Amino acid sequence: MTREEYFNALIERHGKEAQEKFSNAAVGIAGLGGLGSNIAFFLARLGIGKLVLADFDRVDVTNLNRQQYRVADLGRYKAEALKEQLLGINPYCVYETHSVKLTEENIPEIFSECDIICEAFDKADQKAMITETVLSDMKNVILVSGSGMAGTDSANKITTRKVMSRFYLCGDEKSDIADGCGLMAPRVAVCAAHQATAVMKLILGQSPV
């Protein structure tokens, strides 16, 4: 299969104008767990031109219930294991990987080429850190964050909300693994799909809400 054949297939499904916008976009994903790995799969299938994938962690057996990794990936850096799978889906996207811990110092550099960043961290302090960094130091970047996808409550309670002009929040904004309700693949994937849909609509110049 050639590059031309691949993109002609995407154009047939998405339309030429939409696909040109997708192909010219660069999106960052901060955290490659249940949210981030699923977001990456969705965006690769859209034909996003460049994905910047960042996570310091390695694949653990406890990740396999909801994250896009395989038993064969155990022990590998998530960024590299995910890139390998994404290349099998869309070999014509540019995948830039960073197996480092994201901080307020390195986020602006790592995601410097990105128009949109998806926040997909687990911990509240990390979420707060990247939100403050992006909104304060990356004036032209839009942040799409996830909060609240734990448990087995209705998927219909997961929504997308505009918090600020450059900040969108996806999730039920309530459920928390700390409450003992667990993280289940379907509900996590629904939240990831909300984030990927918000990215899609923003690239197309449409409101995500």
TrEMBL record:
Residues 11-206 form the THIF-type NAD/FAD binding fold domain. Gene3D superfamilies: NAD(P)-binding Rossmann-like Domain. This is Sulfur carrier protein ThiS adenylyltransferase ThiF. One of its GO terms (molecular function) is ubiquitin-like modifier activating enzyme activity. It holds the Pfam family ThiF. Keywords: Nucleotidyltransferase, Transferase. It comes from the Bacteria. The keyword Nucleotidyltransferase applies. InterPro entries: ThiF/MoeB/HesA (IPR045886), ThiF_fam2 (IPR012729), ThiF_NAD_FAD-bd (IPR000594), Ubiquitin-activating_enz (IPR035985). GO terms for biological process: cyclic threonylcarbamoyladenosine biosynthetic process.
